[in-house]
């Protein structure tokens, strides 16, 4: 079991106005994020990344969002914009999920482009371009905000790492690879075949 202890990323200093202005002015074809006060611009994901994100959404939505073949009780969104903490940090996870009782109306009459409530679960799909950001500042922000579960998916290595937040630290709870059938927290109510994640 590996423990990742996030360094202190608490800051009450607001984002620099020039960083906020650059965030607002980011071209639509780029994904803009502010992590620990630093602006990051990324192109939209490459096809292996997008394929895995779509597959994972397909596996989880029916049983956990709609309650078909599973318990329901979750709001699961693809690439939501999150504004978290006092700066705020502005980040876009590949997928995020909230227990329904915490976010009873994910959309409703809310015309906002972002959500201020930290999810219960987040998933990041790693690439060479984003790995250091996903395993560094992003993990620290999620820990600070009390996100309980984090999945890190490696599309090319075909691995799934499951992290659990324990007393403010990330603990690597499980690692999956190969042809396994898996039950994975917090969605252990169903079993799925890991190769479905990589299927084209």
Automatic annotation (TrEMBL):
Putative restriction endonuclease domain span: 28-195
InterPro entries noted in UniProt: Nuclease_put_TT1808 (IPR012296), Restrct_endonuc-II-like (IPR011335), Uma2 (IPR008538)
Signal peptide residue numbers: none
Pfam hit, one: Uma2
Full protein name: Putative restriction endonuclease domain-containing protein
Organism: Cystobacter ferrugineus
């Amino acid at each position: 079991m590996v423990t990742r202890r996030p360094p202190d990323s608490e800051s009450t200093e607001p984002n620099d106005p020039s960083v906020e202005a650059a965030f607002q002015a980011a071209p639509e074809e780029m994904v803009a994020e502010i992590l620990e006060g630093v602006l990051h611009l990324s192109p939209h994901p490459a096809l292996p990344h997008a394929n895995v994100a779509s597959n994972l959404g397909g596996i989880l939505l029916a049983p956990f969002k709609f309650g078909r073949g599973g318990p329901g009780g979750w709001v699961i969104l693809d690439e939501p914009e999150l504004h978290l903490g006092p700066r705020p940090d502005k980040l876009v996870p590949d997928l995020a999920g909230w227990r329904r009782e915490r976010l009873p109306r994910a959309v409703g009459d809310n015309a906002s482009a972002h959500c201020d409530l930290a999810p219960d679960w987040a998933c990041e799909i790693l690439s060479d371009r984003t790995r250091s950001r996903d395993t560094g500042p992003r993990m620290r922000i999620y820990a600070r905000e009390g996100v309980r579960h984090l999945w890190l998916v490696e599309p090319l290595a075909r691995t799934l790492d499951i992290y659990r937040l324990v007393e403010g630290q990330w603990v690597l709870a499980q690692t999956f690879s190969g042809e396994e059938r898996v039950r994975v927290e917090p969605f252990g109510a169903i079993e799925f075949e890991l190769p479905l994640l990589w299927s084209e």
